[in-house]
Structure formats: C-alpha cells, structure tokens
Amino acid sequence: MKRLDDWFYTPAAQVNLDAQQAALARQAQLTKPHGALGRLEDLAIQLAGLQGTVTPSVKRVRIVIFAADHGIAADNVSAFPQEVTAQMVANMARGGAAISVLARALGAGIELIVLGSVVPIASDPRIRSEIIAPSTANFTQKAAMTDAQLRTALAVGRAAVARARGGGTQLFIGGEMGIGNTTAAAALACAYLNADPAQLVGPGTGIDSERLAHKRQLVAQALELHHHQFKDPFATLMCLGGFEIAAMTGAYIACAHSRLAILVDGFISTAAALAAQRLCPGIEHWMFAAHSSAEPGHRAMTDALGLTPLLDLGMRLGEGSGAALAVPILRHACLLQSEMATFAEAGVADGQ
Ligand SMILES: Cc1cc2ncn([C@H]3O[C@H](COP(=O)(O)O)[C@@H](O)[C@H]3O)c2cc1C
Ligand SMILES: O=C(O)c1cccnc1
After folding, report:
1. Cα 294 to averaged position of ligand 2 atoms, centre (Å)
2. Are 314 and 271 within 8 A, CB to CB?
3. Which pathway does it serve (predicted)?
4. Which uninterrupted H or E stretch holds 61?
5. Is 320 in the pocket of ligand 1 (CB under 6 A)?
6. 48-103 tens-digit pLDDT
7. Could you confirm whether domain 61-328 is CATH 3.40.50.10210?
8. DSSP bridge partners of 112
C-alpha cells in the first residue's frame, strides 16, 4: 500500500546555493582564462553546492555492489547462465573482477551485498547477505516482487548509505551484478519514459539479433501485462525491477536525503536512478552521470534525468566500473578548485 509519508517519497535535500555561489566566484579568481577548465569548473561548483563548502573533496569514495538474480533469466535473455551472478560475486570478493581492480587503484572502499541468488553463496565475511528470495519472479507472468520485498530492497540500499556516511564517504557509487538485469532495466526505462522496447532494449552481455528480438518481445509482453501500474513509480519498480536495482534506488534516495554526492554508472544503474527520480523529486541535482554505456537506450535515460555523461569509452560492463573510471575527473576538478592560486595570490594580471 502506498503511503506518501514513506521515507523514499521525501524530496531530495536542497543544494547549498551559498557554497555554490562562492565556488563560482572562486573559479573566476583562479589563474586561468575564465571558463578554460570547461566542465571541470561546473563539476567543482556542483560538488561545492552538494558538500556545502567552497573546497569540496571526493578523496573518500565508497562503492557498494548490489547483486541479485532475476526470474526473467529463465527466458534466455542473457548470453550467460544465471549462476554467473553468484560466481561473479565470489570473484569480486576475491578481488578479481573489473570493479575490484578499479576500486583498489582508486583506494576506494567496496562493499558487496547479495539480495537474491539462485546459487547459495558460501558464508564469507567479505559478502553481506541480505537475501530476500532466490530471485525475483518472472515479470512476463506476474509482478517481479511483492510490495514487502520492494520495501526491504529499498531499505537495504538505505542502510548501505548509512554505513558509508558513518565512514565519512564523500562520493557514493552503486554497482550491480545480476544476470538478466539489462532486461529489467530496459523494461523500467520503457515504462518510466513511455518508450518502445525497440528503442531501449539492447544486447546486454552480447546476445545475437534473433535473441534480441525475443528479448524485445518479452519486454513488450511485460509492459502490456503491467501497464495499468505505470502511473505509480513504486508499483512500476515492483512489477519490473530487480532486488539489486531497487536496493540501488533506495541507496540513491538515501544519498539525496543525507547530502551525499552520487556518481551513476551505466545502463542498469541509470534505470535505478530514473526510478529514484520518479520517487524522490530533485534527486538528479545530487547525481553525476559517469559515462555513456554502449547499451542503446542509456542515452534516453540520462537525457530524461538531465545528466550529461562524463566519459564515452564504449563500455558496457556495469559493476560500477564506468563510475570508478570517472572518479579521477571529479577528484581533479576538486583539487583544481581548492589548490590553484588566485590571480591576486600569484601576482598574475587578471583579464577583462
Ligand atoms: C562475467 C560477467 C561479468 C559481469 N559484470 C557485470 N556484468 C553485467 O552483465 C549483466 C547484465 O547483462 P545481461 O542482462 O545480458 O545478463 C549484469 O550482471 C551486469 O552487471 C557481467 C556479466 C558477465 C557475464
Ligand atoms: O551499462 C551497463 O551497466 C551494462 C551494459 C550491458 C551489460 N551490463 C551492464
């Protein structure tokens, strides 16, 4: 049952406009032609507004990976078998996944949370088990999850942000692992954007054109089955989402409530961001889009959120990997804002 006083409907915190204004003024005094640092200037100014300081910092980065299996995987929508979700979580715990390498290189903290797995995950202190069910239901037949399951998933994300906040995190990255989740993400994108599966459903891990046509057909079938729910963003997420997508949605909303900047990764993360924006208005001001995913349909979502991706490396991995690669850009934007000399300090003549 929808209750408007539920925490996830609370609008995002207001950005600190005074800090943003002060950062803008400082940019004009730094020893460079006005605007010469391009988007790095905008990033520093936005971060100043989010962190409430003229000298923002994103030294302390937290990456939280949410993993879960999907009922829709039974319909052959991925190039890989469903067991890969659990196998990749184990790989992440051992430090061998792409995101493990990137997190190490950044000195970023990483947390692994499993919300649903068809393969039992061995007890491992590096993996947090928040199992809701082995997988979501197949959304071509019924709602992917129940109201209670969605609330639990959202709360798992919120709790992860509370732990990150407690550790002094300055930038939050959500990553995901879940075979079949590009189908769920595409279905969500179609529902929230009222778009055609032909435009937004793509090959994910790399299926051929015949299976892609089948994947589009399944999404169209799910949209037909659940369309009467699409006026309600919560019910839309319940019908079409995944546990990991919903947890990421909850995490993003908690960031926007607790004044924590969000770096959004690729296709699946952006679907979670879109869900978050429909539940929690204004959250897009707390977000940066890290990169353009090669998955077609990503662009429609970043456009709808009003976000311009920082990188375009042709990546289509997920795990938070594209976001990790964009961290140095944000870090350097902050360092330039904080450490460059002003014209007055350096004795350099200012321009007009
Ligand atoms: C080895 C491997 C590592 C991954 N890391 C992220 N994904 C990505 O691929 C999956 C989504 O694609 P689809 O919808 O086609 O299944 C997700 O788990 C996503 O994070 C991976 C996929 C595989 C196979
Ligand atoms: O951009 C992503 O997040 C993505 C794209 C394809 C497969 N897995 C993840």
Report:
1. 8
2. no
3. Nucleoside biosynthesis; alpha-ribazole biosynthesis; alpha-ribazole from 5,6-dimethylbenzimidazole: step 1/2
4. strand 61-68
5. no
6. 999 999 999 999 999 999 999 999 999 999 999 999 999 999 999 999 999 999 99
7. yes
8. 65, 127
Q: Which two tokens stand for residue 103?
A: 């997190």
The ranges of the chain with pLDDT < 50 are none
What contacts 89, CB < 8 A, 6 or more positions away?
A: 65, 67, 112, 114, 117, 121, 127, 177
Q: Which residues of 74-113 are buried (b: 16+ CB within 10 A; e: fewer)?
A: ebebbebebebbbbbbbbbbeeebbbbebbeebebbbbbb
Domain boundaries, the chain: 61-328
pLDDT of residue 1: 54
Instruction: Name which residue sits closest to atom 21 of ligand 1, judged by CA.
Output: 317
Other residues' Cβ atoms within 10 Å of the Cβ of residue 210: 8
Contacts of 127 (CB under 8 A, 6+ apart): 89, 90, 93, 112, 113, 114, 121
325 CA distance to ligand 1 middle (Å): 18
166-200 pLDDT, tens digit each: 999 999 999 999 999 999 999 999 999 999 999 99
Contacts 24+ apart (CB under 8 A), 154-157: 154/8, 154/246, 154/247, 154/249, 154/250, 154/253, 155/250, 156/66, 156/113, 156/115, 156/130, 156/247, 156/250, 157/64, 157/66, 157/246, 157/247, 157/248, 157/249, 157/250, 157/251, 157/252, 157/253, 157/254
Pairing of strands 287-289, 127-129: unpaired
pLDDT for the residue numbered 122 = 86
What is the identity of the amino acid at 75?
A: D
Helix (H) or strand (E) holding 131: none
pTM assigned to the model = 0.98
| Ligand 2 neighbourhood includes 186 CB (under 6 angstroms) | no
Amino acid at 181: N
- Looking at residue 311, its amino acid is L
Please state the φ and ψ torsions of residue 174, each to the nearest 5 degrees: -100, 135
Residue reference for tokens 């004795």: 347
Q: Is 291 in the pocket of ligand 2 (CB under 6 A)?
A: no
